[in-house]
Amino acid sequence: MRAQPKGSHFINGRFVEDENGVVFTSIFPATGETIAKLTSATSSTVDRAVLTAKQAQPAWAAMPPVERGRILRRAADIIRERNRELSELETLDTGKPIQETLVADAASGADSLEFFGGLAASINGQMIELGGAFAYTRREPLGVCAGIGAWNYPIQIACWKVAPALAAGNTMVFKPSEVTPLTALKLAEILQEAGLPDGVFNVVQGFGDTGAALTTHADVDKISLTGSVPTGKRVMASAAEGLKHVTLELGGKSPLVIFEDADLDNAVSAAMNGNFYSSGQICSNGTRVFVQHNVLEDFLSRLKERTEAITLGDPMDPETQMGPMVTNDHADKVLTYLDKGKSAGARLVTGGGRTKVEGCDRARFIQPTVFADVTDEMVIARQEIFGPVMSVLTFDTEEEVLARANDTEFGLAAGVFTRDLARAHRFAGQLEAGTIWINNYNLTPVEMPFGGVKNSGIGRENGLAAIGFYTQEKSIYVETGDVESSY
Ligand code: NDP
Integer distance in angstroms from the first to the last C-alpha of the chain? Predict the structure, then answer.
């Protein structure tokens, strides 16, 4: 097995196994090849990981913040040095094309470690003048954080959670998706090589029950989940039992609104990036593309031509622009949505089914698909598909499209294309979403907070905002005069 890790779990600086865990495999989606065999963590292994994180936390929090930050920045440097190896592993685990993973996955993780490493020494409270007294506040870590990840951006998700958590003096137990278990273990090794003390970052593998063992654990103080809305609701309900802090990065059905004055080639580029990157397996994708009537057919013809030029292939081939779906089960789910689109009467502009790639016979490749004439109530316009399926809708007025764009249970992201500055900002201000792009789509620089509203989540990752979700504020009142007695 060409990607077998030294062990399934990483606890207290060592790889360990759980003999009572369930054996599961990691599969290269393009060929069906088993690349690693691991065991899931039973509750006793979860206990061990949480206890280790709890014991390591006071010393980690007491370390001068500039030193904590230096370790994270060193880890960022090592990730960049080993980017090719990490990218190949991520491609093997997820099936995403190597031309994507080389620039988007570990690289984004390194940015996160660098950003929060640099920030660690500036996490401060404030001083408050009270007249004859004063108060100051301290930003203190929460304690032990549990990170739980989805399978679409495994190392990025791990880094986006571990970097702010550790910068603020917390420790972490991270559970990757069992579909993509490998790069979190590499991250643990890299952090250790960068000088991270044992026990500060731990990895446990497993299924939903391992995640649930973390969310219900009495010694876990905060849970940060990236996953689907149903899992988010379950995690929040179990966190409520212990009044734990939560950050939830969940799904979406985001609108991308293209006005007739937009630069149409840029709008097509953004719609393609926001629907086909990572085979459409991205939470913030702009899967409801609203195009103003006058430019609809022009938009569709440019989109069709460029979509049909996308190269599907072996994800390890540097020429490949789109790989297979992460698992066959997930591909089958996406295919059912293609049927639903067709039977609801949507106009199939291009794609619409499976396609074969030579040498990857066991993989499920889905053609990049565009439906036009989609209406608001169609299932393909309401539910998250998480595949390369774009729904194009049309509109007449700004007022109308705003109401329709906001008519969804989700609120992760949204985009607007227009050359009218006033309209762009007015519209962005009224869209109900956590992240809005004007004249671009799906860029998530680490400096900018990212997260959802409505059913798309709670809390923010990235940016200065993330620190607020990994710390709690303590107020300290200081008397400089006498105590005024009431008695
Ligand atoms: P899931 O919600 O199925 O799983 C997410 C993680 O939670 C997995 O590690 C899963 O383990 C674990 N889990 C499952 N049940 C529980 C439970 N009861 N308690 C604790 N943990 C549990 O999501 P997917 O992995 O299928 O990822 C796709 C989803 O993630 C999409 O909806 C997508 O929109 C969302 N997502 C959101 C992002 C964001 O930033 N907003 C980014 C990327 C994806 P296991 O895998 O073993 O089931």
Answer: 78
Residue closest to 17 by CA, chosen among 213, 208, 203: 203
Q: How far apart are CA 202 and CA 120, in angstroms?
A: 20
228 C-alpha to ligand 1 centroid (Å) = 5
Among 101, 99, 91, 103, smallest CA distance to 31 is for 91
Residues near 424 by beta carbon (within 8 Å), at least 6 away in sequence: 416, 418, 438, 439
> 328 is written with which tokens?
């066959």
In the block, tokens 């401060």 appear at 124
Q: pLDDT by residue (tens digit) across 230-287?
A: 999 999 999 999 999 999 999 999 999 999 999 999 999 999 999 999 999 999 999 9
Could you tell me which of 291, 284, 258, 275 has the C-alpha nearest to residue 367?
A: 275
As given in the structure block, the two tokens for residue 202 are 């731990």
Is the CB of residue 272 less than 8 Å from the CB of residue 300? no
CB atoms near residue 429 (< 10 Å): 8
Give CA–CA dist 274/251, Å, rounded. Answer: 14
Quick one: tokens of 330?
A: 């997930």
User: Quick check: is 140 catalytic?
Assistant: no
Of the candidates 114, 178, 249, 384, the residue annotated as catalytic is 249
Give the separation between CA 368 and CA 307, rounded to whole angstroms. Answer: 7
3-state SS assignment for residue 364: coil
Expressed in angstroms and rounded, the spacing between residue 149 Cα and the centre of ligand 1 is 6
Concerning whether 161 is annotated as a catalytic residue, the answer is yes
pTM beyond cutoff 0.90: yes
CA R_g for the chain: 24
- Residue of 248, 244, 249 whose CA lies nearest to 222: 244
CA 328, CA 387: separation in Å to the nearest integer? 12
From 114, 178, 384, 461, the catalytic residue: 461
Kindly give the distance from the C-alpha atom of residue 327 to the centroid of ligand 1, in angstroms, as a whole number: 14
The order of strands in the sheet holding 133-141 is: 127-129, 133-141, 471-479
Q: Which residue's C-alpha comes closest to atom 8 of ligand 1?
A: 177
Given 54, 161, 175, 253, which residue is catalytic? 161
Question: In angstroms, what is the span from residue 71 Cα to ligand 1's centroid?
Answer: 29
461 is catalytic: yes
Q: Reduce the DSSP state of residue 128 to 3 states and report it.
A: strand
Q: What number does the ligand 1 atom closest to the CA of 228 have?
A: 32
Of 177, 278, 461, the residue with max ligand 1 atoms within 8 A of its CB, to mutate for a pocket test, comes to 177
Annotated catalytic residue, options 283, 360, 384, 398: 283
Q: What are 341's two structure tokens?
A: 């689109």
- Read off the pLDDT of residues 121-169 as tens digits, 9 standing for 90 and up: 999 999 999 999 999 999 999 999 999 999 999 999 999 999 999 999 9
Catalytic residue check, 33: no
Tell me the two tokens of residue 444: 């998530």
